[in-house]
């Protein structure tokens, strides 16, 4: 006899709540986050959200931390792979990163950028954003150093800002083949950065 689905317990319940919070942010914006709305999206009682998160701010912070941790892990994997491609492989690796973002969960990307913008108003989110950006800069700094950049830290900051801008533009105006647009832009930028250091 089949058993009915049971609601998750413990840390699994917390994870479901955070996923629901990210989905609510993606679908309705940061302003829609309430314990009641997230509980409904998670299919759980409100008491479940208030058990794990005492306030809306705590819930938003934990959701943003989850988004950051996932993306950082993905970026570490990508940069490890890019390091094996050699200096000429950096634009391709960055294009792969952006196209994976754009072809993956649009909701995850919208939620992450919505919370990123919310960091302008919330210091607790700002700390996560700074850490997230610092990891990206450090990882790209390493790749750019290997590729011959004479100012890898500055170049890495420029690349991080460019990647964010390209992703936001692509979210706002989706394209059928984003790689066809992104690759030449990244090849030109990385080429200019490395040529400047030669």
From TrEMBL:
The entry's DNA-binding region: 34-53
GO molecular function: DNA-binding transcription factor activity; transcription cis-regulatory region binding
Top-level taxon of the source organism: Bacteria
Record keywords, A-Z: DNA-binding
Gene3D superfamilies according to UniProt: Tetracycline Repressor, domain 2
Matches recorded under InterPro entries: Homeodomain-like_sf (IPR009057), HTH-type_TetR-like_transc_reg (IPR050109), HTH_TetR (IPR001647), Tet_transcr_reg_TetR-rel_C_sf (IPR036271), TetR_C_31 (IPR041583)
Entries under Pfam families matching the protein: TetR_C_31, TetR_N
Domain annotation HTH tetR-type: ranges: 11-71
Protein name listed in UniProt: HTH tetR-type domain-containing protein
Lineage of the species this protein comes from: Bacteria, Bacillati, Actinomycetota, Thermoleophilia, Solirubrobacterales
